[in-house]
From TrEMBL:
One of its GO terms (biological process) is nucleotide metabolic process. Coiled coil: none annotated. This is Unnamed protein product. InterPro entries: Ap4A_phos1/2, Ap4A_phos1/2-like, Ap4A_phos1/2_N, ATP_adenylylTrfase_C, HIT-like_sf. Pfam families: Ap4A_phos_N (PF19327), ATP_transf (PF09830). Residues 56-199 form the Ap4A phosphorylase 1/2 N-terminal domain. It comes from Candida boidinii (Yeast). It comes from the Eukaryota. One of its GO terms (molecular function) is ATP:ADP adenylyltransferase activity. Residues 232-348 form the ATP adenylyltransferase C-terminal domain.
Length: 365
């Protein structure tokens, strides 16, 4: 029988220890206790609708999440503006930073691989919505480090293989996402990676896209295999299948890092390419993107706008998960249309696109 998580600090000093840590058990009990004690803002009775977009065929979930109207926004600049991230603005953000000293009631792991914490989201979209945050302040628009990619994968592998006590109960599937850059839809400027579970019996298109494809990494544009995508969708996105296992720690780090940088290069070139298409669009060198991951695949979505028609959008919409704060926003979303929203927040597919026109090496780093 499970016991409540210990009140003493939990420290995990390595990836190997993280692999063995009963993260789902602690997460579940911690969330239940925090919800009972009103330490987080969550309404478990939110009604969900499951719909299909008429244009793209995307299946999506739509629900009202009351906590969204209370969730604080703490960032140095507003999306869609040409504001400069000055030291004064960043210092102001740091002074209101909720992640520097997270609430003990919401903390699952006090120290992870020395530099990180695992905490519950105080304003969750779903049950057991949690975050990995850096202990020290690091900006959200920095690249994911190799250790961060390893942490993401290890948590997902761990939690997706051990999240039910009942053999007859369908396993809950978690995914991770990272909103980076001023137009990515993030609300907190302190670096954080989010983990959420998918709705039960909700089939995600990425699994269908990678079906039948083994792990590979495109070397360049002459490679016969390029990143995968769902051809019916109107927004640019790139998906790569992950291997089912790794031979050793060196391969683990190298493959995840190479896959991520491969996707980042695609994003950088989408920005550069779009500058040639839309003369009003200027690529300043700072990219925005949504990074999504399960233990089966990685995906990246270049982002042009954080919101469209007044509707704020982060990674979740590109998973087919739409949360709105009230009926007014819900009606606006339905009037705008899912495909229209995702296309205008991302980058549109061009007719007769020829990937061979893009040169990636020019922007590698």
């Amino acid at each position: 029988m499970s016991s409540l998580p210990s009140s003493s600090p939990v420290e995990i000093d390595s990836i190997e220890s993280l692999e063995k840590f009963p993260i789902y058990e602690d997460l579940k009990l911690k969330f239940e206790k925090a919800e009972k004690n009103n330490d987080l803002v969550y309404n478990s009775k939110s009604e969900c609708e499951y719909l299909t977009d008429e244009i793209s065929g995307m299946k999506y979930e739509l629900k009202i999440v009351d906590a969204l109207s209370l969730r604080p926004i703490n960032r140095p600049t507003e999306p869609g503006t040409k504001e400069i991230e000055t030291k004064e603005k960043i210092d102001k953000v740091k002074s209101k930073n909720p992640f520097i000293k997270p609430e003990p009631e919401l903390t699952i792991v006090d120290s992870l691989c020395n530099d990180y914490r695992v905490i519950l989201n105080k304003y969750p979209n779903t049950e057991e919505h949690f975050l990995v945050v850096t202990k020290e302040f690091i900006q959200q628009d920095t690249l994911l480090k190799p250790i961060e990619l390893q942490i993401i994968y290890t948590i997902l592998k761990n939690i997706n293989s051990s999240n039910t006590d009942n053999d007859d109960e369908e396993k809950v599937k978690f995914f991770a996402f990272f909103n980076s850059g001023p137009e990515s839809g993030y609300s907190q400027f302190h670096k954080h990676i989010q983990f959420m579970k998918l709705p039960g019996n909700f089939n995600i298109y990425q699994d269908d896209v990678i079906n039948g494809h083994e792990h590979y990494i495109p070397n360049d544009l002459n490679d016969s295999k390029q990143p995968l995508s769902e051809k019916n969708f109107k927004f640019r996105h790139f998906i790569l299948p992950l291997p089912t296992d790794f031979k050793n720690n060196n391969e683990f780090e190298e493959i995840l890092s190479t896959m991520y940088i491969t996707l980042i290069r695609r994003v950088m070139n989408v920005f550069k390419e779009y500058e040639e298409i839309d003369k009003d669009f200027k690529f300043t060198g700072k990219i925005s993107y949504n990074f999504l991951m399960t233990n089966k695949w990685m995906m990246i979505v270049p982002r042009r706008n954080a919101k469209f028609n007044g509707i704020w959008q982060n990674s979740l919409g590109y998973m087919g998960l739409f949360s709105v704060k009230n009926d007014k926003v819900k009606n606006n979303l339905m009037d705008t249309g899912i495909s229209n929203l995702l296309e205008n927040c991302g980058f549109p597919l061009q007719e007769n696109e020829e990937e061979s026109k893009i040169v990636y090496n020019e922007y590698s780093y």
